[in-house]
Design goal:
Number of domains: 4
Domain S1 motif: 50-117, 147-201, 222-282
GO cellular component, one term: ribosome
Structural class: alpha+beta
Order of helices and strands: HEEEHHEEHEEEEEHHEEEE
Protein name: S1 motif domain-containing protein
Radius of gyration: 33 Å
Largest sheet: 5 strands, mixed, barrel
Keywords: Ribonucleoprotein, Ribosomal protein
Strand content: 25-35%
InterPro entries: NA-bd_OB-fold, Ribos_protein_bS1-like, Ribosomal_protein_S1-like, S1_domain
CATH topology of the largest domain: OB fold (Dihydrolipoamide Acetyltransferase, E2P)
Distance between the termini: 77 Å
Length: 282
């Protein structure tokens, strides 16, 4: 408590005493109000192991992420998750607020330790949905080539590039994509079905998926169209109809049994095709 004595040039001693008491009471009340305000403003966030809180990213590097967890406290990312940071760092920014879980209230360095596991599990799907809606490219790591196409990995999510969504030279030799990092555009993403379908062709040729959907909807089943031959595989012949890729199944090439679709067509040729079925999903 601060005491102030106010001296008056004129007046009685009683007046001097009253001013002293009034000033004392006012300062006392004012001090209480200021302290309450400061306590409310600087009240620290309760950091308890297992608790989920919203944290603000204040630093990102290859060595880890530093978070502001409130109350002037900083937290660091757990060592096991730092190994994964190179995959996620391009999609995080300083200032982002994300949900973290406290895994240690204090590490050997004196900082609380947090986990981004919930973000890794859910946030990456949110990123994919946003990228799809904005028709933005993503980088994926290619794996082996299988029946469905070239398998890819994005932040731990397994997806596929259908062979028809490749450009040369990968269209002819998709197995050579293994181990390569390529840019793609997202065609389909579904967390519930754990499904991710992307296109390397859409990225290379700057194809708009929304425009492609419009072209697809304009094509009618039961009509004959001119088609450009793009390539062949064990499944049949890949072709392009009105700017949309399609497949002539190997069973539809000839009345006779066909063992090698490539022997019936030449890449670049224009042929007449009859649209039997449309499948937006595939």
């Amino acid at each position: 408590m601060i005491w102030y004595i106010v001296y008056l040039e004129l007046g009685k001693k009683g007046e001097k005493f009253i001013m002293k008491e009034e000033k004392k009471i006012k300062i006392k009340k004012s001090s209480i109000n200021i302290m309450d305000t400061l306590l409310n403003k600087t009240k620290p966030t309760l950091l308890k192991k297992g608790k989920e809180i919203e944290a603000k990213i204040i630093s990102i590097s290859k060595k880890g992420i530093v978070f502001d967890v409130g109350g002037k406290a900083q937290a660091i990312l757990g060592e096991l998750e730092i190994k994964e940071i190179t995959s996620y760092a391009p999609y995080l920014s300083v200032g982002d607020k994300i949900l973290v879980r406290i895994i240690s209230e204090e590490s050997k360095n004196g900082f609380p330790v947090v986990s981004l596991r919930k973000f890794f599990d859910k946030g990456k799907w949110d990123i994919l949905i946003k990228k799809r809606d904005n028709e933005e490219e993503i980088n994926v790591m290619c794996g082996e080539y299988g029946k469905g196409g070239v398998f890819i990995n994005f932040m731990g999510i397994r997806g596929v590039i259908p062979k028809i969504q490749l450009t040369e030279p990968f269209l002819s030799q998709p197995e050579k994509m293994r181990g390569q990092k390529v840019k793609v555009k997202i065609l389909e993403v579904d967390k519930e079905k754990n499904r991710l379908v992307v296109s390397q062709k859409a990225s290379v040729l700057h194809i708009s998926h929304k425009d492609l959907i419009k072209k697809f909807e304009a094509i009618k089943e039961g009509k004959i169209y001119k088609a450009k031959v793009l390539g062949a595989s064990e499944f049949g012949v890949f072709c392009e109809v009105e700017g949309v890729e399609g497949l002539i199944h190997i069973s539809e090439i000839s009345w006779e049994k066909v063992s090698n679709a490539a022997s019936f067509v030449t890449v670049g040729d224009t042929i007449d095709v009859y649209v039997v079925e449309k499948n937006l999903t595939d």
